[in-house]
């Protein structure tokens, strides 16, 4: 009887979750869709546009990590997408809206080639190999005069005729939504399951006929496609950029968004990016101390939430449940 | 000839793990591969399935040379295996462990998956049916939604076999399937192997246990990387060389 009620409770909780999640999502999307109607400040629209851009970069980085490998070249791939699109638009005069998907495809192809080269490397070796690839990309950008080298590239054609921040805000909101949905469907497809299987044991995976190398190349292509896409969008939004925006520090920040948010959950990198991007905005009064403040928060998150910010609700729930139980026990002993 | 191993040799530095091994497995039999610890049985399995590359020799399956094929290609040609330490997809439940192997033969592409086409739904349904069939046959129905790493040892071993079956093999290589099990679990595994055999799948099994030898049609004995005897279980029991290999005699 007790078990029955527990099961019943469980099913109620599950159906609650089933309703709660879409509602929460709808509210969030509605919030961001209506945001510019209430806050017209170009500054905040700019910050949020950048947040959308880096959210896609972080989510696509996490998509690659579900195969069990951690690449350290994702910032560089964003740069590849950005520079390819900028060069195409600036020197060939193609429409930016055409250059963006083309350079995303090119980035995917380059990502797959790199994945092919590194398909025999695993864990740390793979991470270090891709790290050097990322550093190499930056030096290649430096080497060509058409990219502007160290001084950066200027005069990249604008995405739309207008300079209005709101247009770009909606463009990046829609692009981010499409990318995130596509990556979500990818992760929870058969291919995602196979990738997770490879991450758990490549030996077992190949013993049932899974071609580990091919699936790892494929996921590299998918991850790089979306980071190239958003990188290209970034280039035509900023209109000027230098390779330092895509160097190893940029890659590290992407890793940070993923790890702080929670690498084991799809929502992790989204939450991580918003947290780290918007955090400095809330402590702007303490501007000169802002880095220390951010660092302290990061340490707190890493110490108390090793599974990332995503685990916060569950942690709080278990904390309060435990406390509740403790009170009940003390009540019993008191009476 | 179904599976034929010719002059297979594997050298690890100064150690000859497998030395000029000749071995055949006939279609439809249960063959046993026995030998003392360190005789090179697991290495032989690893060489057949390309987990290791041989120093010398050939592996021929269904008349085709598969010596230097990749592991996954060999699995697709019809040789599936289990592992001695039995690694599983620990974070997957039993059903997922089995169905993952079916996904690779799924013909629906990314487009079908994104838009959940009829073809995709039909394939998905078929995969679930096939997975359930295997799970039912091996008696894992009760635990089908349990995470693999939370299963008891006996069920984990059974799941290893179930996963290998999901690769739809013609030849199943089992590496010590009943090591460290209690008599009830042993009986369940032996029954399962018989059922698999009845379905027309050839089985090559590594085992020390005499109970396992009794269900074999033919037993091959290895020592120091070489084949020292071959015959029916009874013949092997009476073989003096085998006895001395196991008892460490001269």
Reconstruct the topology from this structure.
The complex is a heterodimer of chains A (335) and B (250).
Chain A: H1 2-38, H2 42-65, H3 74-91, H4 96-117, H5 123-143, H6 165-187, H7 190-200, H8 202-207, H9 212-238, H10 248-261, H11 268-282, H12 290-304, H13 312-334
Helix pairs in contact in A: 2-6, 2-9, 2-10, 2-11, 3-4, 3-5, 3-9, 4-9, 6-9, 7-9, 10-11
Chain B: E1 3-12, E2 15-25, E3 30-34, H1 41-48, E4 56-61, E5 64-65, H2 71-77, E6 79-81, H3 94-103, H4 110-115, H5 118-137, H6 153-166, E7 171-175, H7 183-198, E8 202-206, H8 210-214, E9 218-223, E10 226-231, H9 233-238, H10 240-247
Parallel strand pairs in B: 3-8, 3-9, 6-7, 7-8
Antiparallel strand pairs in B: 1-2, 1-4, 4-5, 9-10
Describe this structure in words.
The complex is a heterodimer of chains A (335) and B (250). Chain A is mostly helical. Helices cover 76% and strands 0% of the residues of chain A. Chain A has helices at residues 2-38, 42-65, 74-91, 96-117, 123-143, 165-187, 190-200, 202-207, 212-238, 248-261, 268-282, 290-304, 312-334. The model of chain A is unreliable at 329-335 (pLDDT under 50). Chain B has ten helices and ten strands. Chain B has 250 residues and is an alpha/beta fold. In chain B, helix 3 (94-103) runs parallel beside helix 6 (153-166) and helix 5 packs across helix 6 (153-166). In chain B, strand 1 and strand 2 form a beta hairpin. The longest helix of chain B is centred in the middle third of the chain and has 20 residues, at 118-137. Classes of the chains: A mainly alpha (335), B alpha/beta (250). Chain A binds chain B through residues 182, 185-186, 189-191, 193-194, 196-197, 200-201, 203-212, and chain B through 49, 51, 70-73, 75-76, 80-81, 83, 87-92, 96, 100-101, 103-106, 108, 110, 113-114, 163-164, 166-167.
């Amino acid at each position: 009887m007790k078990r029955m009620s527990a099961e019943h409770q469980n099913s109620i909780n599950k159906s609650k979750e089933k309703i709660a999640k879409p509602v929460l999502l709808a509210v969030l999307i509605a919030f961001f869709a209506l945001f510019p109607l209430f806050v017209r400040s170009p500054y905040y629209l700019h910050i949020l546009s950048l947040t959308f851009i880096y959210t896609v970069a972080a989510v696509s980085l996490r998509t690659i990590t579900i195969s069990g490998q951690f690449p350290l070249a994702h910032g560089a791939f964003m740069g590849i997408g950005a520079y390819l699109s900028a060069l195409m638009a600036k020197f060939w005069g193609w429409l930016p809206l055409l250059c963006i998907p083309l350079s995303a495809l090119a980035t995917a192809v380059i990502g797959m080639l790199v994945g092919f080269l590194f398909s025999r490397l695993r864990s740390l070796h793979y991470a270090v190999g891709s790290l050097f690839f990322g550093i190499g990309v930056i030096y290649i950008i430096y080497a060509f005069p058409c990219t502007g080298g160290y001084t950066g590239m200027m005069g990249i054609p604008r995405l739309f005729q207008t300079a209005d921040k709101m247009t770009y805000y909606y463009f990046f909101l829609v692009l981010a939504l499409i990318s995130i949905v596509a990556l979500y469907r990818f992760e929870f497809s058969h291919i995602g399951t196979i990738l997770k299987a490879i991450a758990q044991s490549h030996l077992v995976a190949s013993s049932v006929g899974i071609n580990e190398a091919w699936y790892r190349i494929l996921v590299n292509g998918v991850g790089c496609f979306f980071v190239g896409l958003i990188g290209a969008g970034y280039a035509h939004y900023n209109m000027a950029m230098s390779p330092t925006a895509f160097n190893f520090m940029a890659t590290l920040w992407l890793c940070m968004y993923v790890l702080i948010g929670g690498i084991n959950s799809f929502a992790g990198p989204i939450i991580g990016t918003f947290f780290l991007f918007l955090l400095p905005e809330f402590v702007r009064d303490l501007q000169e101390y802002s880095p220390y403040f951010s660092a302290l928060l990061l340490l707190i998150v890493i110490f108390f939430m090793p599974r990332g910010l995503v685990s916060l609700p569950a942690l709080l729930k278990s904390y309060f449940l435990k406390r509740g139980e403790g009170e009940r026990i003390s009540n019993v002993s008191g009476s | 000839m179904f599976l034929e191993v010719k002059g297979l040799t594997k050298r690890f530095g100064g150690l000859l793990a497998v030395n000029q091994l000749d071995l055949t497995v006939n279609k439809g039999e249960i063959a046993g591969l026995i030998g003392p610890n360190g005789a090179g049985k697991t290495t032989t399995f690893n060489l057949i399935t390309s987990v290791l590359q041989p120093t010398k020799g050939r592996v021929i399956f269904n008349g085709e040379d598969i010596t230097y094929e990749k592991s996954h290609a060999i699995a697709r040609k019809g040789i599936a295996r289990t592992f001695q330490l039995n690694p599983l997809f620990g974070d997957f439940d039993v059903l997922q462990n089995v169905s993952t192997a079916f996904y690779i033969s799924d013909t629906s592409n990314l487009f079908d998956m994104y838009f959940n086409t009829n073809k995709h739904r039909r394939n998905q349904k078929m995969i679930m049916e096939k997975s359930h069939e295997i799970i039912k046959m091996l008696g894992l129905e009760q635990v089908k939604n349990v995470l693999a790493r939370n299963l008891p040892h006996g069920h984990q071993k059974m799941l290893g076999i179930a996963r290998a079956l999901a690769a739809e093999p013609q030849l199943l290589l089992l590496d010590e399937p009943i090591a460290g099990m209690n008599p009830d679990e042993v009986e369940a595994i032996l029954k399962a192997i018989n059922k698999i055999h009845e379905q027309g799948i050839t089985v090559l099994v590594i085992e020390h246990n005499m109970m396992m030898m009794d269900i074999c049609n033919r037993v091959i004995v290895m020592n120091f990387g070489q084949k020292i005897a071959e015959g029916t279980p009874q013949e092997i029991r009476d073989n003096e060389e085998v006895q001395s290999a196991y008892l460490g005699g001269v």
